[in-house]
Amino acid sequence: MKMNAGKTFTLVCGTAAVGVIVGAASLVMTRPATATTLFAKTTGKACGDCHTNPKGTGPLTEFGEKFKANGNKLPK
User: Is the same domain home to 7 and 22?
Assistant: First the structure.
């Protein structure tokens, strides 16, 4: 199958344009992660066990870092 240079160029540029549009859309449509009290209830831990703030906001504690490194599963 032969393709001429014009059609090849159009196909490559079109594919690149779709990639740029999808990439830009993924940056615009992202949301920050938010933890919920349900997450704490399912693990049996209080929010303050993983976070420096007892309400669950702020930096992670040492336990919270281990929890995160373990794929959000309780470390053993």
Answer: yes
